[in-house]
Structure formats: structure tokens, C-alpha cells
Hints:
Chain B: It is found in: Cell membrane. Chain B: It holds the Pfam family Oxidored_q3. The structure holds 2 protein chains of 2 kinds. By secondary structure, chain A is an all-alpha fold. Chain A has 3 helices and no strands. Chain A has one domain: Orthogonal Bundle (Helix Hairpins). Chain A has helices at residues 6-26, 30-54, 59-87. The mean pLDDT of chain A is 87. Chain B starts with a helix and ends in an 11-residue tail after the last helix. The interface between A and B is large, with 73 and 89 residues.
Amino acid sequence: MSAASPTHALLLATLLFAVGMLGVLARRNLLLMLMSIEIMLNAAALAFIAAGARWHAAQGQVMFLMILSLAAAEAAVGLAIILRLHSAGRPTLDADTGNRLKG
Amino acid sequence: MSDLPFILFSLVAAVAAIMVVTRAVAVHALLYLVVVLLSLAGVFFALGAPFAAMLEVIIYAGAVMVLFVFVVMMLNLGRSDRDRERHWMAPAVWIGPALLSGLLLIALCTTLRTIPPTAASDTMAPIGPQSVGLLLYGPYVLSVELASFLLLAGLVSAFHIGRNIRGTGTGEP
């Protein structure tokens, strides 16, 4: 069995997803949490690509495009919220003090 | 099938992802995230998806990461932020999340073991952009429209949240 088989790619996707979840759970910095979410989304995209390679279908890359647009929208909105929180007088990016957005 | 690039890119992606979640300085984590995305593009290429690999490089490692860099520059992080981050990353903090994600990793890996190995993986030809485009503008045109709706919603909400960010105007909704 070739090393570049879709099963190994799924293994890598699993590992990346677990690392991203570790980052989301353990970090308190909002920016680092967003980066970890990006890692998790990339793991999901890799799983789609691997499945598309397994059955030799282009639908995996179609779903990759959907994940790509989702990640772009999520990054834009999340970073805007971070900037808004920062300008609302928060000295840190602590996720535990996210109650100062005021509307 | 290209074995060696796949293994190399996978190793680089895994190590860089671990480095992303353990860095104290946000810019260092961001640069490691760019490494993760570029090596994932290499993995996509080795899996026979050159269109997805190029999109990963252009949109993820290009556009989205530029957005992150821009926000890190606007946040003006300094030495005190790094020290606070080191304080937040005490070893006791990592026990619970590491247990949970280790459990998830074990569960997913045991699920992966039940998948039968692929029969003819040596016959994997690359799936070019032409077949993807034919699918996108054929049966999946509604998904493309929905993705454009999503991007428009993201644009409008980012503009709405981010406007008046210095508190100069009085036009609150």
C-alpha cells in the first residue's frame, strides 16, 4: 500500500484536528483560539480531499471550496470582533473577559 | 504516487501545528500556521488535488494569513503580553485539554483502523481543475450561490462590527 494513501491522509487529518482542539481548549488568547480553529477547518478539508482521492471523485474538492469560503468568512468576522473588543478598552485578549462588547 | 513528499509534508504539518498551539508570541504562532498551510498544500498535491493545493496557497496562506498579520499588527502586542501568555500556559492548564483531545485522537484512530485499505491506490490520477469546475457549475451551482451568500454575509457583518472602531462617531445603532 502506498504511503500517500487516503488512509494515511485521514490519519494526518485526525492528528491535526486533535491538535487544533487542544489549542482551542487550552489557550486563553482569542487570536490563538482563532488560529487553532483554522487548523481544525484545515483538518476537515484534508479529510474531504482524502475521501475525494479515495473514490477518485471531484466532489471532495468542491467541498474543499465550501470550507475555504466558510473559513474566510469566519476569519473576517472573528478578527473584526477581536478588533472591536480590543478597541473597547480591553488590555488583554483574554477569552474569559468577553463581556465588554456592549451590543 | 509520490510517497516521500507526502511523508515529508505530513511531518512538517504535524510538527508546525503543535508549534502553533504552544507558542507564546502571536506572530510566531502565525508564521508556524503559514508553514502548516503551505505543507498542507503539498499534501493536497501529493493526494492528487492540484487545484485545491493552489487555492490553499493563494487564499489560505495568502489572503487569510494577511488578514491575521494585519490584526496582529493593529493589536500592538508587546513584551507584557508575552509574559502574560507564558503565565497562562502553565503546565497544569494543559492536562485537561490534552486528556480530552488525546481521547478524541484515540477514538478517531480506532475508527480509522476499521476502514479497509484502499484497493488500487497506485492508480490515483490527479483530479484537475476542469472536472472540479464542471461539477461546480453543473450540479453544485446552488452551493456556489450559497457560498457567495456566506461571503457576502461575512463582508457585511465584518464591516458592521468593524466600523466606528475608534469610537469617534456617535452613530450607534
